[in-house]
Design a protein that fits this description.
The chain is mostly helical. It is 64% helix and 0% strand.
Length: 229
Amino acid sequence: MDLINGIFFEGKLKNNFFTDARDMNIYDDCLKQSILKSRNILANWFWRGEQNQLVKILDDVSLALIKNSILNDETFAAQRKFNLRWSLLEYLDDQEVGVHMSEIRNQLREHINVAKDVEWDFISDEEYSYAVGQAVSYLLHLSKANNKTESYVNPFFNAKNSKVIKQRLLRMYTKYNYQIIHINGGRNAQLLSHVMEYEPKEIKHELIMAGFTAPSLMYEKKTDDEDNE
């Protein structure tokens, strides 16, 4: 209970299990609505051991709260929420999302570090979506503006198709490409060009958010093997 209360609900759930909505001293609408939506189901789980609708409500609410943290420029908080989300889904429903996410990240790492003359493509829509998040994070990092996150990233989190994603990425690239060190076959070129070329069947919004909040693969130190290629 303490982890869920502290990480997902910023310590506000514990004292608001039975508080009338009008009397809740919470000014973040997403946080308030998430507590109202989930508190009865969570209370039944904490004190009675009942798990009816538990997985679904944790799935829905945790993702909404993660998105809210990102839009509020709270990347570290979003990372902690992701870790708790994946741990709970694995514990309660055998969903090995965190393990799968690590595999996707490793696959993308291998792809963007290949030699410039090696052909490759994303192996799944999941890898593509994670790469979109990484690309948005990378391009946004080039901006020096303050309070920039919500207006830039929200359209990607809500995108229904790749056309919207590519239009937005092109707009960001055009705006900030003067700050990019252009290396033929470099990581940024590998990432951005393949995101622009790939046509996914489905956009995986959780993967976009996960890619966005994860440490950037663009700035990882190269291994000895990569240096010798």
